[in-house]
Design a protein that fits this description.
Blueprint: H1 6-15, E1 19-25, H2 30-47, E2 69-76, E3 81-88, H3 98-101, E4 117-125, H4 164-169, H5 173-189, E5 193-198, H6 200-210, E6 215-216, E7 221-222, E8 226-233, H7 234-244, H8 246-253
Parallel strand pairs: 4-5
Antiparallel strand pairs: 1-2, 2-3, 3-4, 5-8, 6-8, 7-8
Helix pairs in contact: 7-8
């Protein structure tokens, strides 16, 4: 199932505020893969203008790294693709995608075992689920990525703290579900380190959600806009999240022992308190 009208998306979001999440390897699910490439084309080529649309006449944004990727996907309950990201694990003799653009790397921070690393990239959320006036391209309210937010409790979306309409704005359900699925896939596949090249708003968002400090591994570069290459240990991610938000960490751990990736509905609205960390390492 592919396209969805705005009216249908609104009705779906009002009556079915849950999503399912899954993962698949390259060339194993052609229908889902085509939907991922189409959503990436919509966001990267038509909305954010990172890539020239004329280079993709079929309306599918893909590159050579998709051959080594696991795609993490989110569907609404109508089985429409609403978000995705990819984990790229290239062979030992191939570079990671960020290395094409981020060339001024710090040698002492690039000594991680290649076979235990994967790069997180191509995070996209359908515009049908970021339709509020202050929504960002990451599917979250703009105050969650603001450089200097003013309200002390701006990150707290628990029911006793906010009206329902305000809490809905601070529920990054699709993003959290994608990252949970990515984390669980990484644990099952023996991935111990993540690379990523992040723009500052996304770096701030991730640090505020998960309480870690991102480690820059190179100088800022132009990679679809200014980004900083970073690495993150999965073990450190677990330690930071378990101490900063035990409830969210427990949800990330659920069903992790299953042999295959799960597609589970995620009722986050009442249960995940989102709190502000002490500091941001990239700001």
């Amino acid at each position: 199932m592919g396209n969805m009208t705005e009216d249908a998306a609104m009705q779906d979001s009002l009556t079915s505020p849950y999503f399912s999440f899954g993962a698949f390897s390259a060339n194993t699910e052609p229908d889902n893969e085509a939907q991922v490439f189409a959503l990436r084309y919509q966001v990267y080529c038509l909305e954010r203008l990172f890539l020239p649309a004329e280079n993709y006449p079929d309306g599918l944004e893909k590159d050579e790294y998709d051959a080594y990727a696991t795609h993490i996907i989110a569907h609404n309950l109508s089985r429409v693709l609403v978000g995705s990201l990819r984990l790229v694990s290239p062979p030992a003799d191939n570079r990671f995608p960020f290395q094409q653009h981020c060339t001024q790397l710090f040698p002492d921070r690039m000594k991680l075992p290649h076979h235990e690393c994967a790069e997180i990239s191509r995070l996209v959320i359908s515009k049908l689920y970021r339709r509020r006036a202050n929504d960002t391209v990451f599917g979250v309210a703009s105050q969650l990525v603001a450089d200097n937010p003013t309200a002390q409790d701006i990150y707290d979306r628990r029911k006793e703290k906010r009206e329902d309409s305000d809490r809905r704005k601070l529920q990054p359900v699709i993003l959290l579900g994608l990252l949970r699925q990515m984390y669980q896939h990484s644990k099952r596949q023996g991935i111990r380190y993540w690379y990523m090249a992040l723009e500052k708003p996304l770096a701030r968002l991730l640090q505020r959600l998960f309480y870690f400090a991102l480690i820059p591994i190179g100088k800022q570069a132009d990679y679809y806009g200014p980004v900083t290459p970073c690495s993150l240990s999965v073990a450190y991610f677990e330690e930071a999240l378990s101490q900063g938000d035990p409830v969210l960490f427990a949800w990330f751990q659920e069903s992790i022992g299953e042999a295959t990736d799960l597609a589970a509905t995620v009722p986050l609205a009442e249960t995940i308190p989102l709190r502000k960390p002490d500091t941001d390492s990239i700001n």
